[in-house]
Amino acid sequence: MNKAFLSGDEAIARGAYEAGVKVAAAYPGTPSTEILETVSQYEEIYSEWSVNEKVALEVALGASMAGVRALYASKHVGVNVAADPLFSAAYIGSRGGLVIVTADDPGLHSSQNEQDNRNYGKSARIPVLSPSDSQEAKDFTILAFDISEMFDVPVIIRITTRIAHSKTVVSLGDRKEVEDKGYIKDVSKNLILPQFAKKRHYSLEERINKLAQFAETTPINTEIEGKDKTIGFISDGVAFQYVREAFPEAGVLKLGMSYPLPEQKIRNFVSKYKKVYIVEENDPFLEHLIKSMGLEVIGKEVIPTVDELSPDIIKQSITGYKTNLLKMDIDIPSRPPALCPGCGHRTVFYVLSRMKTIITGDIGCYTLGALPPLNAMDTCVDMGASITIAHGIDKALQKKDKRKIVGVIGDSTFFHSGITGLIDIVYNKGISTIVILDNSITAMTGHQTHPGVGEDIKGAPAPIIDIKALVHAAGVKHVWDVDAYDYKKVKDALKQATSIDEPSVVIARRPCALYIKLNNGAYVVEKDKCIGCKICVDIGCPAISFDTDTKKAYINEFLCVGCDLCAQVCPVEAIHAKNN
Amino acid sequence: MQKTTNIFIAGVGGQGILKFSDILSEVALLEGLDIKKSEVHGMSQRGGSVTSHVRFGDVVYSPLIEKGKADILVALEQIEAVRHISYLNPQKGVLIYDPLKIPPPDVNTGLRKYPENIDEILKNASNNVIRVEAFKKATELGNYRAQNTIILGIISHFLTFDDKTYEKAIEKVLPKKTIDFNIKAFYSGKELK
Ligand SMILES: Cc1ncc(C[n+]2csc(CCOP(=O)(O)OP(=O)(O)O)c2C)c(N)n1
Ligand code: SF4
Ligand code: SF4
User: Fold this and answer.
1) Is the pTM of this model over 0.95?
2) CA angle A294, A298, A304 (to 5 degrees)
3) Is the residue at A391 inside a domain?
């Protein structure tokens, strides 16, 4: 049989392909991004980077209504943005199978929270499948489409970072073409006016009861018989693998389906063991459902809720096991990520760091502008919030605080959910300044295209949505369009923009240096001219270091890409291109 | 049943750790073993600390290596060796490290110094330490990016796989243009031990 070594994300994409999916939509977000990146390589599937997650889910739901199998994928917080259509989709159900992949991030490797999206399954009353490796990620995806069509319901597949970004061996199958069902008008299902919606709610409750029956017999809920009956485990997702690693001999009830639960199966399992532990990452989701069956089990009393689990953490929590580890008595500096050498975002943050401003930030590479030495960000809440938090602060302070309020947002984020906030500012007569950092790509998540780029997900030419025209159309009268590598222009634009008592926008443009592999040749610091003022060091370029012995700055020529910013801020012209 | 081998790789974003662990995984795959590898994408290219867990054997459950269980800990930078030393098996583990120094932001900005005595401490970190100037060697060979394949050559002494398997893995994972160079780097790494 054909085997491949795939990440969970790649395996889900492969599953979608084999299941005959025709439409897939997503907005990027770590750790889910590679799902659509992989899907987009299959010619048989229409795929798109949607403008945001709500849009993506609606596109997928529309495709399902039109009778084809459709896939949605996002990171966990993306589902919050898509929550409105999600709850409607539960009532409406599916015509073509509809599968919603959520990639949660226990441990916050690259997210703002640790929310546990199994909860969405329970609140919206739709089934949740939780694969524990890449093979299951593929198999469960195919099964999810079958369940979706069998029970007329969308299905959630919940993975976590350690599934999404771990690679394991997967056997591949062929694509199974599924016949298109075609579109038919069916308002009793697809148009959820109250009179129809109430009926659909009754039907949803019936559907979820039938799914609970299905859960009793599906082979993805399996029991591994333990030799010793003193201790047993119930687990789902990657936590199951950790349990197997930590207690290879123990009995385990593995729930491939985290919602709804197979009550009889669980009762039967629990009755066989003296002590049963529920091992799950983040929320006591299974635990609460199982305890509400009146069963005596142990969960978060000992297993941590915060952070991701690991085999050692599980062993420690349950047995108190400790092992001697190597330790070194050295105080080592941390190594947070930083804006790349040559990143155009740097100029704006450097200028802002020297102005008296309240800076509301947003999510993207540019959130790194919050870290030292730039320290140029006061808030970061969720995508798009730079603009709206700025507006809220503005309305609360009513100019009683002398500081100007500046919201900083990336181009992809602006399309995602910034434009609505900007319209709100204009409509409600706010006076904030908004900076749009246009690097012509969604950089943070690994460089995906967006509506401002001119390319679609497959790299084919696409219309460019003009940010400047959009800003004008939203009614902003004061707009600056500057080259982000031009320190003086950026500074002047920000000074002027913040001096006006009306909404203003500064668009600072430069393609992402990492994406275009910028290399203009390295710069050098002339030792004799350098006065050790550290101004160039304050721009936070990883290529520039300060030698505390010689009290001079120097540039690492392996890292420098020659953007010229340090040369522009140096007060004594000590920095220039090496080959000059 | 063959015991699971655990290899933990640590370094700095941009050093090519993910490619490195891909090659290593491919070697185990070609040998027909079960394998899991885990890492975190996202910010990895922005100069932060990056790690990869590689595990292979007859059956592998957890994608993560437990602390104190790494058979081999590879560190491509000094500070990163110290940061992840707790993963190394204190009795039997092999530490392979490159004494390369990549200054973190606080050192760059002159807020603090790069800790000085790390290299000395690492040399005696456990019974089995290999210090290898792979970055330097790779630069001499013509491209610092081959730092990883040089270290792969050293790792090969501790595993039971055939050299040809490493060659095949390099051919499969790396871009065509760089294959010959990397195979050369692999063998020169092998000689370093
Ligand atoms: C709701 C939601 N969806 C997706 C993400 C993941 N994510 C964080 S920032 C970002 C986009 C960043 O792109 P852009 O605004 O262009 O900034 P850049 O990284 O290019 O500087 C994405 C997709 C998220 N944090 N929240
Ligand atoms: S990836 Fe691009 S946008 Fe992100 S920090 Fe690097 S240069 Fe800047
Ligand atoms: S020119 Fe200066 S600021 Fe730009 S990458 Fe090189 S060292 Fe960094």
Assistant:
1) yes
2) 135
3) yes
